[in-house]
Amino acid sequence: MLNKIEYTTDLAEKFQSRKAKVSKEVTQAVEQIIENIRENGDKALFEYAEKFDGFKANAENLTVTQAEFNAGLAQIDADYLRILRRAKTQIEEFHQHQLGNSWGIYKENGVIMGQIVRPLERVALYVPGGTAAYPSTVIMNAVPALLAGVKNLFIITPVKSDGKVNPNILAAAEVCGIKTIYKVGGAQAVAAAAYGTASIPKADKIVGPGNIFVATAKKLCYGTVDIDMIAGPSEVLVIADEAANPKYVAADLMAQAEHDKLASAILVTSSDTLVSAVNQELERQVVQLEREEIIRSSISNYGGAIVVSTLAEAFDVSNQLAPEHLEVLTAEPLAKLPLIKNAGSIFLGEYTPEPLGDYMSGTNHVLPTGGTAKFYSGLGVYDFIKYSSYSYYPRDILAIFKDDVMAFAKSEGLTGHANSIGVRFDEEDNK
Predict the structure, then answer these.
(1) pTM confidence score
(2) If exposure means fewest CB atoms within 10 Å of the residue's CB, which of 149, 159, 362, 392 is most exposed?
């Protein structure tokens, strides 16, 4: 199952370009939806809800009522709520260290400068509905936003004709204290949150995963509203030495491969023996898993084993690929941390498998894919805050800088800028 491959620039290109191609038809369809929402607001929103989801939405039934919350939560096992709360606590513990602070400089000459940190005011969290409902997505996106101080956080999620939101989503929302949930999804929900309608307020940012229509809508609405990222198919790269347990390596590769047929699972090792052992484990374990077909397809098309001469070379390969998830299954894994330059999230040691990070370790699972970990970071508190700088200069201190500022402005042909400084020192103003 796990074919041996060589690391080449072609492999890097294949690894980093697995995003589903957006056809012109999809783009045009989403553009039309966005424009319709902009022009017709709720009327268009309700029409799309009925057209695509079979839900006859209106201003009265668009939001989840307290009675609907209660009915959904009644279906949730108490132990599952405990698990959700535990996950939230773990995520809070990690993310609270990302909080930014306002600061100020007070100089002896009277100059005051600083930076104010403020949260975004309103954030929309897109959550896929139906069978693809992921309550972990709610917690991963909501916790950093709440820690940042976002006061208005609401969920947009599609429903079926019965108008019922998946109970697991309701449970995750309850745990996070989110009270407002709009029963609408797709590109139309993104457009509504980006531009605002009579029923859905305009958001400052939209976060959360979705299908190709949702992703395209987020991309097209970016600039009008901020977004988290355009995520591609999931991926894991495992660096393992000859002592690594092949059972664990195989299980971890399949954990990512089962996401979809575009997922990538790559082993980088200096041991041919390990590759053979991992292949045996893959064949033994895969037949026990529900998504066997998807796993075989993704590993065959976008996975493989890269055999290198040394572990140092393995980390070089990893840094070039910049994987979303990187597992280090080697002796003294913590000592290898300085070798890692590019990775969305790093899992060190055989008892820190990637699925732990998906749910419970505390780190965020919203991560850059397709090599973008070279310049993007995983979702965090910093994605929900903004920074405003401020300064105060007394007149006598401005006088020290005025000639240089005016000369600088004139060198750029901006005489209005120079005049703005100069008029403050006209003789009549000094009388």
Answers:
(1) 0.93
(2) 392
